[in-house]
Design goal:
- By secondary structure, the protein is of the alpha/beta class.
- Helix content is 29%, strand content 21%.
- Among the domains are: 4-77, Beta-grasp domain (Ubiquitin-like (UB roll), Roll), CATH 3.10.20.30; 92-184, Rossmann fold (3-Layer(aba) Sandwich).
- The chain starts with a strand and ends with a helix.
- It binds zinc ion (ZN).
């Protein structure tokens, strides 16, 4: 068949991903065959889990839509939809189970501190990450664009910032997690839930000063690690107050 041209317009912060110096302009692509719209979007550098709405000549389509000649493609990220209502959204807005890639140890810890469920294996290969993601129905957190483009990824997010504090805010915002925050409920080491435990039960494991100063304890249901308010609590409460302040600022 003859070659033809399509025009892509990436909205919101999607131009961040586009591999072109003129990323804020409409991109023209010459095509020789009829690919899916997903393939063409990813060939521009934009991973499909970042795309929440695709319009072709103004009509919403899904990722498998085959591109025809001479069309205009509008691509929108989560949280930046056009004003008219459409139910053809491609992403789930609220998600509360994650798997993070090996470079995101600090982010994983930060999210667990807030009680969020984050599988993290410091030595996992990509293949193992994707398996855990599928098996446990988790959303993938990564700064590896190729990994996020993998065909088996349904829910995922590319961290814009390199810093754990900002990344934490990004994840809370993207997956609508402010109401899911439950500090002091999840093990920082192994991600298992913490359960209340009586002081008497763990008395012999405590250091002398801890025995004197603390009365409330929680124990990890996975690895047995013991937690008490003194170890992380005041810092954590400050952190949560900061997060709430941040979100009320951005909502204003
Ligand atoms: Zn644990």
């Amino acid at each position: 068949m003859n070659s033809f041209t399509v025009r892509l317009n990436f909205h919101g912060d999607l131009p961040f991903f586009v591999r072109s110096k003129r990323r804020h302009e409409i991109i023209e692509r010459g095509l020789a065959e009829k690919p899916s719209v997903k393939d063409v979007i990813e060939s521009c550098g934009v991973p499909h889990p970042e795309v929440d709405l695709i319009l072709i000549n103004g009509e919403p389509v899904d990722f498998h839509h085959t591109l025809g000649a001479n069309v205009d493609v509008d691509v929108y990220p989560v949280g930046f939809l056009p004003t008219f209502v459409t139910n053809k959204r491609l992403q789930i807005t609220h998600f509360n189970k994650f798997v993070s890639d090996v470079h995101l140890g600090r982010l994983s810890r930060s999210l667990r501190l807030l009680g969020l469920d984050v599988a993290y294996l410091s030595a996992a290969e990509d293949r193992q990450l994707l398996k855990a993601m599928q098996r446990e129905n988790r959303a993938l957190l990564t700064r590896d664009r190729r990994l996020l483009m993998h065909a088996v990824v349904q829910n995922g997010y590319y961290l814009r910032s390199q810093y754990a504090t900002e990344q934490t805010i990004e994840v809370i915002r993207r997956f609508d997690l402010l109401r899911s925050i439950a500090p002091f409920t999840r093990c920082l080491r192994c991600n298992a839930p913490l359960e209340k435990v009586s002081k008497a039960e763990i008395m012999e494991k405590l250091k002398p000063l801890t025995k004197i100063y603390y009365e409330e304890f929680r124990r990890c249901s996975g690895c047995g690690q013991i937690y008490w308010p003194g170890s992380h609590f005041s810092k954590l409460q400050k952190r949560i107050a900061e997060l709430h302040a941040q979100f009320s600022k951005s909502a204003a």
